[in-house]
Amino acid sequence: MVEQVFDHQGVSELVVPVPQRGPARPGAAAVVQQLRDRVAAMEGPPARVALPTHPALADAVPLYAGSSYGVDSPALALALMAGASAAGSWTAVVGWPDFGALAAVELGVDLARTVLVPDPGEHWLEVAAALVDVVPLVVLRPGARVDAKSAGVLDARLRKRSAVLVVWGEWPRCEARLTLEESSWSGPVEGRGRLHERRARLAVRRGSRPPVRLDLAFPGEAGPLAVAGRPAAGSPALAPVVGQ
Questions:
Q1: Rounded to 5 degrees, what are φ and ψ at 78?
Q2: Model confidence over 167-192: pLDDT tens digits?
Q3: Is the peptide bond before 188 cis (omega within 30 degrees of 0)?
């Protein structure tokens, strides 16, 4: 028995053929239950579709289509870009005139599939909204404060287009907010040599829930972005630095 679903201007119509004669014919109660299950599936909320997330961040902050995420540093913005970009998705960056291309590549961002609008002027919100229509992940550095109503319009567009917005700065509503609470570098040894690894403590906050924290090692001579483990015996001490 074959079921067909037709869509007439956005209204789904379920057509169930009359059961044919035969030993496997379902009873009336089974047919009614099938109808109820199909109607419930069509009326229910859409499933949360996960976007590829950088392996170092996947457990702490998985990305879901239709959501916005706030970050407080360029390193975190690039890290959230990297998973989707490395998996083959297009990404876009709006309002970031000093975008660090080299840092982006080190984190795994494919510049060949990156749209960059470095200085959209006063039209930054309209540009971001237009890119949400065609790009799965958009990084936005707001040019000014945005009110809850304007943010709500863009949030609705994210859900409609199944896109993700990463905001470097303030945003009224976010699925999660990522902040770097500590930052430190390893090297140089005995005052000589080059800095070769940066470590930072990431805090992920969702509403009023307690934050989730993990230590990250950012790209350097030691390797790509990863969850930081305990330093090996004899490793140079981490020197605290000011800023991020």
A1: -65, -40
A2: 999 998 899 999 998 777 766 655 56
A3: yes
pTM for this model (two decimals): 0.71
CB atoms within 10 A of CB 5: 10
26-49 pLDDT, tens digit per residue, is 567 776 666 666 565 445 444 578
Sign of the CA dihedral running 25, 27, 28, 31: negative
Mean pLDDT of 111-138: 95
- Judged by phi (left if over 0) then psi (alpha if -120 to 50, else beta), residue 121 lies in left
Give me the helix-helix angle, 148-161 and 124-132, nearest 10°.
20
> Per DSSP, which regions of 17-163 are E strands?
50-51, 63-64, 68-71, 91-94, 114-117, 137-140
pLDDT for 28 equals 73
Sign for the pseudo-dihedral over CA of 51, 52, 53, 58: positive
In sequence order, what are the residues at sequence separation of 6 or more whose Cβ sits closer than 8 angstroms to the Cβ of residue 172? Answer: 146, 147, 148, 151, 152
At 88, list the tokens: 């083959």
